[in-house]
Design goal:
It is a single chain. The chain is of the alpha+beta class and 289 residues long. The chain contains nine helices and seven strands, in the order ααβαααβαββαβαβαβ. It has two domains: 95 residues, no CATH class; 170 residues, EIF_2_alpha (Alpha-Beta Plaits, 2-Layer Sandwich). It is elongated.
């Protein structure tokens, strides 16, 4: 029986492997063992209809060249060792150069998204005397991550975005929102969600975030989890440094407004390079909105 593969985890491992091989000066110990192990796992999750980052495409190229061998790890290994390390490294380097260029483009796009979001939030803080800014992170527990691929994550997000657009239940009265899709080593596929309400209509940010978390769990059929950014312990670390930028924000308090604008940039902060998606269901799949 084949063990289910954590798609997010194996893609990050492949990206790191391709990078390390591209910059190393000599063949690492157990190189072919590591490579064959990654190929066997990747074969279980590879979907030719998806759009992958160039570092992952390096592995796709190998996988297609070795088609028919991946079902037998021993045969795969024997076939791999007939390909010189130098040839594999040369191909990896070519793909990794493309990978770095794509990451630069990603950082530029994220910078543009950051400017757009800050501008929108500045306009809102100028317009309303007080706004309630709610932040909640949506993800999947580790025990379910081997069941959650990019398609499932995308489908779950489609349902959530429909609820947002329709201002369904907890989203009733929204005056602004933003979301950012990411992929992390521990959190797997996840979403940072920002919600903004009139302060005269909603006052309890913790309650809103908690209800969103319960909605996410319902959307994901009990496989989702959330992090409420409005717990007392979490807020205290920012309050102690006078950097709290979520919760009730008053227009006549410049510090609160500045902190809020700094806080919302976290959703699309370009420096979070390691959080980019390695795979998309389609080339133009949006990661921010």
């Amino acid at each position: 029986m084949t063990t289910a593969v954590n798609e997010s985890k194996i893609l990050i491992e492949i990206e790191n492997f391709v990078e390390n091989i591209s910059i190393t000066k000599r063949k690492p110990r157990n190189f072919y063992d590591q490579l064959s192990g990654l190929l066997v796992q990747f074969d279980q999750i590879y979907n030719p209809d998806y759009s992958y980052m160039p570092a992952i495409e390096a592995m796709i190229e190998l996988l297609l060249d070795l088609e028919g061998y991946q079902d037998d790890p021993e045969c795969l290994y024997e076939r791999l060792i007939k390909i010189s390390f130098e040839d594999i490294q040369r191909d990896f380097k070519w793909h990794y150069r493309r990978h770095k260029r794509q990451l630069r483009d990603h950082r530029h796009s994220e910078s543009e998204n950051t400017r757009t979001l800050v501008g929108r939030m500045q306009e809102i803080s100028d317009k309303y005397s007080r706004i309630l800014v709610v932040r909640v992170d949506l993800a999947y527990p580790l025990k379910y991550q081997n069941q959650i691929g990019i398609q499932q994550f995308s489908d779950d997000m489609d349902v959530l975005r429909t609820r947002l657009r329709d201002q369904d239940k907890v989203f009733k009265g929204l005056i602004e929102y933003a979301w950012a899709l990411e992929q992390g080593v521990d959190k797997g596929y996840h979403c940072h969600l920002l919600l903004v309400y009139r302060g005269s209509e909603r006052r309890n940010a913790y309650s809103v975030a908690d209800r969103v978390g319960k909605l996410w769990k319902n959307i994901t059929e009990e496989q989702g989890c959330h992090f409420n950014c409005h717990t007392a312990a979490y807020l205290k670390q920012f309050t102690d440094r006078n950097r709290l930028g979520i919760g009730m924000i008053h227009r006549n308090d410049p510090d609160e407004v500045d902190n809020m604008l700094n806080t919302v940039t976290y959703l699309v902060r370009p420096e979070k390079e390691s959080q980019h998606l390695r795979v998309k269901t389609r080339k133009r799949m949006h990661t921010f909105g």
